[in-house]
Specification:
It is a single chain. The protein is of the alpha+beta class. It contains three helices and two strands; from the N terminus they run αββαα. It folds into two domains: 1-38, no CATH class; 40-79, no CATH class. The chain has a two-stranded antiparallel ribbon. Strand 1 (22-26) and strand 2 (34-38) form a beta hairpin. The chain is elongated. The two termini are 32 Å apart.
């Protein structure tokens, strides 16, 4: 993934494994090789997140318009 350091990726995967969302498979090879996959719980979470993500994408124009209207009435929120 572009812009993600190996250290950050490793830490994130360890936390996801700790939470039971991913499974880590260590092949005990040289050079080291590991693979990750979603656990049953991780897959269930993904399936529940897809409708939310779809809703966000479908309503992105509304969010942009609301921000523009707000900023016009109240000034730029980041200022």
């Amino acid at each position: 993934m572009h812009g993600v350091t190996q250290r950050m990726l490793t830490l994130t995967l360890r936390l996801l494994e700790r939470d039971g969302l991913v499974l880590r498979h260590d092949f005990q090879e040289v050079p080291p090789r590991v693979e990750y996959e979603l656990s049953e719980t991780g897959m269930e979470l993904l399936l529940r997140m897809v409708p939310l993500w779809t809703w966000i994408v479908e309503n992105a124009d509304h969010f942009r318009e609301a921000r523009q209207t707000f900023d016009t009435l109240h000034g730029d929120a980041d200022a």
